Amino acid sequence: MTAGAAEGGPVDEREANGGGVAADDEVATGDGTARGENAERAERGGNAERAGGSAHDTVEAAVRAQLAKALGGVRGMIEAAVPTIAFTTAYVASKDVKLAAGIGVGAAVLLLLVRIAQRSTPQFVLNSLVGIAIAAFFALRSGRAEDAFVPGILYNAAYAVGMIFSIAVRWPVVGFIIGSVTGDPTGWRSDPGVVRLCTRLTWLLAVPNVLRVAVQYPIYLADGDQSALLGPVKIVMGWPLQVAALAAMVWVLARGRTPLTPPRPSA
Length: 267
Fold this sequence. Notes:
By secondary structure, the chain is an all-alpha fold. It has helices at residues 3-6, 11-17, 19-52, 59-71, 73-94, 97-118, 123-142, 150-168, 175-182, 192-221, 227-236, 239-254. It has one domain. The protein contains twelve helices and no strands. It starts with a helix and ends in a 13-residue tail after the last helix.
C-alpha cells in the first residue's frame, strides 16, 4: 500500500501526478523513519535515566559516576576518618579505653547532627557511626584499645576475599555497577571487553583491602599495646590509599570508551 492510499487520497489523482507519487512516498517514508528513530532514541535515553538516574554513553562514565556516588566525595571520606582520629588521639592522651570510645562515638554523633542540621544526606556519617560503635564495643568488651581495630581488619579481609573470588569466577564486582545503570544486572557479561575492564577495576578496588590486612594484622599480633601505632596506620591506609586506588581507576577509565549498550546491527 502506498503512502497516498494509507492517507485516503484518490487513486486517479495519484496516477495523474505520475512521478510525483514516488517522491511523496519517499518523503513520507523518510519522515516516518526519522520520527521512529527519534522516538527510539528518546525511549532508550528515558530507560537509561530510569535505570541509573542519568544517561551514560560509555561503561567508563557509568563506573565513574557510580563510584563517586558510593564514596560520598571528599567530605564522605573525611567523615569516615574523624571518629578513628578522635578515638586514637583520646586513648594515646589518656590511656582510658572508655573515654576514648566515648569521644570516638561522640565525634561521629556530632558529624551526624551537622548533616541533619544542613539537611544533607546522613548516609556516610551513619556508616562511620556504625563502624566506630562496633569498634568501641570490641575495645570495651576486652579492655584493650587495639581490639577496636579488629572489626576493620576483618571487614577489609572479607571485602578482599569477596572481590578476589568474584574475579576468579568471572563475575567481577564492578560489573554489577554497570548492571545497576543499565537495569540489566547480568547483561554486561555478554561483552568480553566489558568483563575484562570490570576485572581490572575490581582488582584495583581489592588491592587497598589486601594491603590493609597485610600491614595492620601483623601489628595487631605484635606484643604490647599497639593501638598508638594502629591508629595512625589505619588513618594513612584509609582514605589516602582509597584515593590512590580511585586515581588508578580513573586513569584506566580515561583510556577507553567502551559503549554501555552495544550498537544494533543496521538493517
